[in-house]
Amino acid sequence: MATIVAGGLTTTTTTAAQTVVTNTPANTTSFKCATISGYLTAYSATESNMGVVYIRQAGTDKFEGRIQNTDLASLAGVIVIPWGDGIQFSGSETLAWHVTPAATTSMRWWGAFFGQG
Asked: How many beta carbons lie within 10 A of that of residue 51, not counting itself?
């Protein structure tokens, strides 16, 4: 059975480690891919660092990336992480995407985990 866990967040502060999506997968869940995207809610022709995103597993940062707004583009910055055959979970570990926005400009974040179990 397919498992898709997704969530979104609109930010207007630079508060650290805001949760975009979180899940405590069952011990039979094997996640195959993680993705996160961010975009400004109002068009901007100025290139800017939007913020830092993290995958946290059981409270420990496992991945860190930076999302950039490219000038003259209204497209979202996207990060996709494939995990091949998947990562198995114990049933007690929380998995989450967090973001620390770089500015108080309104931004929309969307994160997801895809797998089976």
From this structure: 23
CA distance 8 to 111: 6
Picking from 43, 49, 21, 39, the residue whose alpha carbon sits closest to that of residue 107 is: 39
What class, spelled out in words, does domain 2-116 have in CATH?
A: mainly beta
Q: pLDDT tens, position by position, for the chain (117 residues)? A: 788 999 999 999 999 999 999 999 887 788 999 999 999 888 877 788 999 999 999 889 999 999 988 766 667 789 999 998 888 887 888 999 999 999 999 999 999 999 987
Predicted TM-score (pTM) of this structure: 0.90
Query: Residues near 17 by Cβ (< 8 Å), separated by ≥ 6?
Result: 54, 98, 99, 100
Q: For the chain, give every domain's residue range.
A: 2-116
